[in-house]
Amino acid sequence: MGQPVVHWELWSQDPEKAAAFYTKVFDWTIQHIPEMDYRFVDTGGEGGINGGIMKPKEGPWPGNLAFYIDVDDLDAYAKKVTAAGGKMIVEKMVVPGVGEFSLFGDPDGRVVGMWKRMT
Fold it and tell me: How far apart are alpha carbons 118 and 116 in whole angstroms?
């Protein structure tokens, strides 16, 4: 069985403006979390994938969108990524009370995230 996409993020220089746009157009519910400088997006409906809107910090943030693949072991999948020709961009980071994530670049340079839910 494959690993499903479980989250997405829009990377915006003006997250407030982006959030207002998607709320107005698609009626998404967006909750601002100031302490994380993050906006959690509930897209509503059944079978959809929720996401987030954030302003990238300093560093390499190629592109304006990433999606996150659910994995059970970030370290093991980081090894698989590098063995297959990708490179790790952001090593494992903890999201308190929720889980852990990392970002990698695929061989074409796309940035993709991996997510491990807190157990």
Answer: 7
Please state the domain count of the chain.
1
- pLDDT (tens digit per residue) in 3-25: 899 999 988 888 999 999 899 98
Q: Residues 25-70: pLDDT tens digits? A: 888 999 999 998 999 999 997 888 999 999 888 766 667 888 999 9
Contact call for residues 74 and 119 (beta carbons, < 8 A): no
Q: Which domain holds residue 47?
A: 5-117
What CATH number is associated with residue 101? 3.10.180.10
